[in-house]
Amino acid sequence: MKVEEWEKEDEEFKEMRRSKADWEFINAQPPHIRAALIYFIERGDRYVASRIAGLSLDEFDEIRRRAKIPVVV
Questions:
Q1: Are 25 and 68 in contact (CB under 8 A)?
Q2: Of 39, 45, 56, 67, which one's alpha carbon is 20 to 30 angstroms from that of 18?
Q3: How far apart, in Å, are the Cα atoms of 2 and each of 9, 57, 73?
Q4: Which of 50, 62, 55, 64 minimizes the C-alpha distance to 22?
């Protein structure tokens, strides 16, 4: 796969996460949780997002699910 194809795929995944996200829920979160959820939407990196939130990966995934943000692989 070419770099351009990966970039296009990444952009499609990002758009999928953005469009399915519950923005009302996300915006109601404390700043560090909100920042982590937005980071995940933009980058798709659950590990780094969980560190930003100060949560374990499992705890972050629970909040991510409540925010209706899909994990696209």
A1: yes
A2: 56
A3: 11, 31, 17
A4: 64
Tens of each residue's pLDDT in the chain, 73 residues? 588 888 898 899 999 999 999 999 999 999 999 999 999 999 999 999 999 999 999 999 999 999 999 997 6
Find out whether 25 and 66 touch, Cβ atoms under 8 Å: yes
Q: Which range marks the domain in which residue 17 is found?
A: 3-66
pLDDT at 7: 87
Q: Domain for residue 72, yes or no?
A: no
Is 32 part of a structural domain of the chain?
yes
Asked whether residue 15 is domain-assigned, the answer is yes
Task: At 23, list the tokens.
Answer: 């923005």
